[in-house]
Design brief:
Elements (H helix, E strand, L loop, with lengths): L9 H28 L4 H10 L4 H8 L6 H12 L1 H20 L2 H12 E2 L2 E2 L2 E4 L15 E5 L4 E12 L6 E7 L9 E6 L6 E6 L10 E12 L7 H17 L7 H34 L1 E2 L2 E2 L4 H29 L8 H28 L6 H8 L9 H13 L5
Parallel strand pairs: 3-6
Antiparallel strand pairs: 1-2, 4-5, 5-9, 6-7, 8-9, 10-11
Helix pairs in contact: 1-4, 1-5, 4-5, 4-8, 5-6, 8-9, 8-10, 8-11, 9-10, 10-11, 10-12
The protein binds flavin-adenine dinucleotide.
Length: 408
């Protein structure tokens, strides 16, 4: 087990500086344009692929870093550049992690490379869980997967919503109900391979922020996928369902909720994205406050401005520490006895919303215009308190964990 440390090692510093260079030289200059275009920034993703940032190798290297700091450090730098573009770059990783976590070795080897494509023909992937009537309440999911034994195929029907890269992805990972009696225990994940008939993009959403990231509905109409597309395989699913049915029948002991443990481990990454956006806005505000003069002196000479900056920086550093702690716990298999993963996401996302709003205030009229980036950063920051579980859901998870109460 790696000791918890707050200091990046030399190799990590090198990676951080390299990512920061890409974020500063390639992502940030493109941010305003793709925000206005509200389109996937394919040329930037391709550039990231060329230098090796958009690749399974890079993602896996950070993911398996035993200090736990690889992913949060990478997320912070990329999202410091721009949240919408960075989400277009890391969105595929969300689907890839779904396969890494639940897939067989063969499924990992077959599908993850197709999620990324290659440098000359980059592809993206989508993870589709949310539905119009199943957002926070995942258990009320309706998309159904039915097994056709004669053909060894699964047939998927339903509508997914809010899918990042939904409809434009080469590979979609779709969560569906295989046993409606079992609530969230009766769900399974499926690969929908490229060009599968029956899968189509529904509405593409026009959003408040992260507008360079594509978000859309995904409609599944009699989508047939081979049996081999069930993540983890049929045998494992049948065993898992049999155990869940037995527990439901006997009222047996509640087992540790595996999905919740996965969320605790993935939420710090979203916290790190929020830290990146917050830090970006803080830096713009600090620079502005030291150069903008009113009443014959820089505005930072006023305590009203300086103390805001002090609070902004304090919250950002506190958020990063919570994120790093939770990431270290996740990588080293520490039990999240106080929902530390949710804690980090809650605090970092609320910090990003607050800090970006303070940055607008410090820039005055300029902060309110699209001539300066803090207005965009504030719009972007609002997503962090919504996706991967809203702030209310994080509080609910933390409170129930502290009270020793079950979490659905
Ligand atoms: C830009 C974007 C990208 C996304 N990307 C993906 C993706 O790639 N894949 C995917 O599957 N999903 C994705 N999502 C979906 C996201 O995870 C959901 O929006 C989120 O889980 C909230 O669900 P909801 O929107 O249905 O809100 P609801 O669940 O309807 O919540 C509405 C409000 O009620 C509150 N609330 C609900 N239940 C409770 C409760 N028990 N106690 C207190 N308050 C409660 C919520 O906190 C919220 O404030 C994305 C969403 C957005 C906006």
């Amino acid at each position: 087990m790696a000791e918890f440390t707050m200091e990046l090692n030399d190799e990590q510093k090198e990676v951080r500086d390299w990512l920061h260079g890409f974020a500063a030289d390639v992502i940030r200059p493109a941010a305003a344009e793709w925000d206005e275009r509200e389109e996937t920034p394919w040329p930037v993703i391709q550039e990231a692929a060329k230098v090796g940032i958009y690749s399974l190798d890079f993602y896996a290297q950070q993911y398996f870093d035993s200090t736990g700091l690889g992913i949060p450090m990478a997320m912070e730098e990329l999202f410091w550049g721009d949240a919408g573009i960075a989400l277009s770059i890391v969105g595929t990783g969300l689907a890839a992690v779904g396969v890494l976590a639940n897939g067989t070795e063969e499924q990992i080897g077959t599908w993850i490379p197709q999620m990324y494509g290659d440098v000359n023909d980059v592809k993206v992937a989508a993870f589709c869980s949310s539905e119009p009537d199943a957002g926070s309440d995942v258990a009320s999911m309706r998309t159904r997967a039915v097994y056709d034994q004669a053909k060894d195929e699964w047939v998927l029907n339903g509508t997914k919503t809010w899918a990042t890269n939904g409809g434009i992805a080469n590979v979609h990972v779709v969560v569906a109900v295989v046993d409606p009696e079992l609530g969230s225990k009766g769900h399974a994940s499926f690969i929908v391979p490229p060009n599968t008939p029956g899968l189509s993009q529904g509405q593409k959403f026009k959003k408040h922020g992260i507008r360079a990231s594509h978000t859309a509905e995904v409609v599944l109409e009699d989508v047939r996928v081979p049996g081999s597309c069930l993540l983890g395989g049929k045998e494992k699913l049948d065993e898992r369902l049999a155990r869940a049915r037995e527990r439901a029948r006997t009222g047996g002991e509640r087992v540790k909720n595996a999905a919740m443990a996965t969320f605790e481990a993935s939420r710090p990454a979203v916290g790190a994205m929020a830290v990146g956006t917050a830090r970006a806005a803080y830096e713009v505000a600090l620079q502005y406050a030291t150069t903008r003069e009113q009443f014959g002196r820089p505005i930072i000479d006023n305590q009203g401005v300086a103390f805001q900056l002090a609070d902004m920086r304090t919250s950002i550093d506190a958020a990063r520490l919570l994120v790093w702690r939770a990431s270290w716990m996740a990588v080293n298999g520490k039990p999240f006895t106080a929902a530390e993963g949710s804690m980090s996401k809650l605090f970092a996302s609320e910090t990003a919303k607050k800090v970006t709003a303070q940055a607008i205030q410090i820039l005055g009229g300029n902060g309110y215009t699209r001539e300066y980036p803090v207005e965009r950063m504030h719009r972007d920051a609002a997503i962090y308190t919504i996706f991967e579980g809203t702030s209310e859901i994080q509080r609910l998870v933390i409170a129930r964990t502290l009270a020793g109460m079950p979490i659905r």
